[in-house]
Write a structure and sequence with these properties.
alpha/beta, Rossmann fold, N-(1-d-carboxylethyl)-l-norvaline Dehydrogenase, domain 2, 2 domains, 6-stranded parallel beta sheet, 3-stranded mixed beta sheet, 11 strands, about 15% strand, globular, binds nicotinamide-adenine-dinucleotide
Length: about 300
């Protein structure tokens, strides 16, 4: 039997919105907050989600705080404070459980975890994989950093949003696993785009070529679930004008985190570095807000990107 919790959910964007809805549907008392009024209005009207006027209001009296924010600076500002405004870590009562599912630097996750430990707040970094489809379906993969004890407390809540939960190690380890995964994803989306562009330049039907490669040694997640060519896969962002999904600028952020980390630990990541540059060029051309699979446009002229 699931013990129902009072949960604050901060950051209700492409991922956070559907994750919060799944918790709400599971019977938890969810109070959401997002800086975007439009996002809040839509979730309140379409899903009946209770919306607070501020993050501080949202966390009042809750057992669990979940954040799904864009980047390290947003997470640090919210939990640790900024511009003289105190962070949530100085407001939450001891014993609260904090779950940060944003993709941020492992070093930032460790800073937040240290502040939590000082305030006797349980805290895990729990970034996700699985895209917006996984967020809606409640089948995300969580990669968790923190103590096993804190993860055990979080597990019943995570299980309402995801199908796989991995304990990667201590604080920050979830974020490290996540950037390794996303560096691979960024590279494989480019590789898949390049192979499809080569086939199309030779007159091959991208649907037929995709199916051949999907069932051959080139088979991968992009070909299975997220084909970058418009019209090949009805449910993929490519078939919806590259709207929604996982933004090019978010992928660029993750590839940047991987490069920063590689510099720190002296790891060689040549393909990750090249991928970062190609996504950066794609973003500079005006495509930062489009789904990352629009990077096909870098190798295939005529793909309807913003440029
Ligand atoms: P998004 O831009 O759609 O949503 C982020 C939301 O956070 C926005 O609605 C924004 O208004 C809100 N926000 C920013 N600062 C805030 C603050 N201080 N208080 C309250 N709300 C605030 O991004 P997303 O696609 O939902 O991604 C969120 C995180 O999840 C990112 O770290 C991303 O890297 C990661 N992620 C995304 C995907 C994906 O497929 N979109 C997949 C895995 C992980």
């Amino acid at each position: 039997m699931t013990i129902l919790k009072k949960i604050a959910f901060i950051g209700l964007g492409n991922m956070g919105g559907p994750m919060a809805i799944n918790l709400h549907k599971a019977g938890h008392t969810v109070t959401g907050f997002d800086l975007s009024d439009d996002v809040c209005k839509r979730l309140s009207e379409e899903a009946g989600l209770r919306i607070a006027a501020s993050a501080e209001d949202a966390v009042r009296g809750v057992d669990v705080v979940i954040t799904m924010l864009p980047a390290s600076r947003h997470v640090e500002a919210l939990y640790l404070g900024s511009n003289g405004r105190p962070g949530l870590m100085s407001r939450l009562p001891a014993g609260t459980l904090v779950i940060d599912s944003s993709t941020i630097a492992a070093a930032s996750a460790r800073k937040v975890a240290e502040a939590a430990a000082q305030a006797q707040i349980a805290c895990i970094d729990a970034p996700v994989s699985g895209g917006t489809g996984g967020a809606v379906a409640g089948t995300l993969t969580f990669m968790v950093g923190g103590s096993g004890q804190d993860l055990d407390r979080a597990r019943p809540v995570l299980e309402k949003m995801g199908a796989n939960i991995f304990h990667a190690g201590d604080a920050g380890a979830g974020q490290t696993a996540k950037i390794c995964n996303n560096m691979l994803l960024g590279i494989l989306m480019l590789g898949t785009s390049e192979a499809l562009a080569l086939g199309m330049a030779n007159g091959l039907d991208p649907k037929v070529l995709s199916e051949i490669m999907r069932r051959s040694s080139g088979g991968n997640w992009a070909l299975e679930k997220y084909n970058p060519v418009p019209g090949v896969m009805e449910t993929a962002p490519a078939s919806k004008g590259y709207a929604g999904g996982f933004g090019t600028d978010l992928m660029l952020k993750d590839l940047g985190l991987a490069q920063e980390n590689a510099t720190e630990v002296r790891a060689a990541t040549p393909l990750g570095g090249l991928a970062r540059s190609l996504y950066a060029a794609h973003s500079l051309a005006g495509n930062g807000g489009l789904d990352f699979s629009s990077v096909l446009g870098v190798v295939r002229p005529g793909v309807p990107t913003a440029s």
